Amino acid sequence: MPDRAPQPVDRQLPTEEARDLISLVRDIAQREIAPAAAEEEDAGVFPRDTFDLLSESGLLGLPYDSEYGGGDQPYEVYLQVLEELAAARLTVGLGVSVHSLSCHALANYGTKEQQVEHLPAMLGGGLLGAYCLSEPASGSDAASLSTKAVRDGDDWVITGTKAWITHGGVADFYTVLARTGGEGPRGITAFLVPGDAEGLSAAAPERKMGMKGSPTAQVHFDGVRISDDRRVGGEGQGFAIALSALDSGRLGIAACAIGVAQAALDEAVEYAAGRRQFGRRIADFQGLRFMLADMATQIEAGRALYLAAARLRDAGRPFAKLAAMAKLHCTDAAMKVTTDAVQVLGGYGYTADFPAERFMREAKVLQIVEGTNQIQRMVIARHLAGPESR
Asked: How far is C-alpha 64 from the chain's CA centre?
């Protein structure tokens, strides 16, 4: 056995309630999530029972109003919960982040009547959400989406295909961005579509490099009819709603990335402390010690950055630039740290007998989802130098 096992992250939390919450999350992660993570990911098993447990435990609606079943937690706390969950299994941590993203539109732009009717079940009633913005021909250029919603009396009829949808085919509700007007961002409107709506179907899940337990699929809307009371916000307001959600969602991805990186560092430290070569622990060789030190520094810097952005959000101050920076830095750091963890384990790191190779495969997708890191650089540059000249 190694003579130095990894210790839990020493977190700076604002309240005793938050500390109790992290303790609860760690207990669930250690007992219910981590033990089956490798086997279920390898088999492509979606852990719906885990999301049911998280809902029962009040962990699916943490950043939302307790009036509707949320947890009234600041983003500073919510993101650290995501980090703990992602460290145990990214499918779960990212799934909670996506669920929170799918609740954002209704929680922030819905009418009082809509919130009373739908939010309690979404936040704490066992439902699981999905967020439908991307399309086969509309990824980074999200404003060019072509899924249409056509008014028919008091109803809307939605037709089109969404792509790369986390929880596609297993979600209970979908927050859908569809075109109701002319071209460009001002012609887009948001809708809340039930998962069992007639005409809604999902393709077979994508065959992915990692996160095999999290279904990612195209979702087809073949004349899906919903009433106008499921339109969220005003007509043409959808793209602004989507961008608002993504600013917060990027912080969720950043926190998940640091969770994966922390898990990889913990694995590397434990292995290095127990593995002996040339009569010494490999953790005693300076080259490897420096590698571990760099990995830990990147993680702490990423954690500080996403928390700084979260605190701006909690204070009601602009945070979009810092959110893009956090998503960029944390996901790039996760890719570097997980790659280095594989190197620390050597040949064992390249085998499925150890989790390092899974962490490395999973880290890659975090540089892509919710705005590629090239898009994050564009966002940051616009804050610094203004829009690009045409």
From this structure: 16
Bridge partners (DSSP) of residue 220 are: 161, 201
Task: Answer whether 0.85 is exceeded by the pTM.
Answer: yes
pLDDT at 1: 43
Angle at 203 between CA 231 and CA 201, to 5 degrees: 40
The DSSP bridge partners found for residue 190 are 177, 232
Beta pairing class for 155-166 and 148-152:
antiparallel
- Tell me phi and psi for residue 95, to 5 degrees: -65, -40
Looking up tokens 């979702």 gives: 219
Residue 236, SS3?
Answer: coil
Give the residue ranges of DSSP H helices in 150-285.
Answer: 238-274
The neighbour count for residue 205, using CB atoms within 10 Å, is: 18
What's the pLDDT tens digit per position in 32-77?
999 999 999 999 999 999 999 999 999 999 999 999 999 999 999 9
Sign, CA torsion 295/296/299/304: negative
Q: How far apart are CA 83 and CA 222, in angstroms?
A: 37
Query: How far, in whole angstroms, is CA 37 from its chain's centroid?
Result: 17
Residues assigned a catalytic role: 370
Q: What distance in Å separates the CA atoms of residue 253 and residue 259, rounded to the nearest whole number?
A: 10
pLDDT tens digits for range 273-322: 999 999 999 999 999 999 999 999 999 999 999 999 999 999 999 999 99
Please, are residues 83 and 256 in contact by the beta-carbon 8 Å criterion? yes
d(CA 372, CA 243): 14
Q: What angle do CA 306, 312, 363 make, to 5 degrees?
A: 15
Per-residue tokens: 306 = 């996403």
| Burial per residue of 318-349, b for 16 or more beta-carbon CB atoms within 10 angstroms, e otherwise | ebbbbbbbbbbbbbbbbbbbbbbbbebbeeeb
**φ/ψ bin of 72: left (φ > 0), alpha (ψ from -120 to 50), beta (otherwise):** left
Using the predicted structure, report yes or no on whether residue 369 has a pLDDT greater than 50: yes
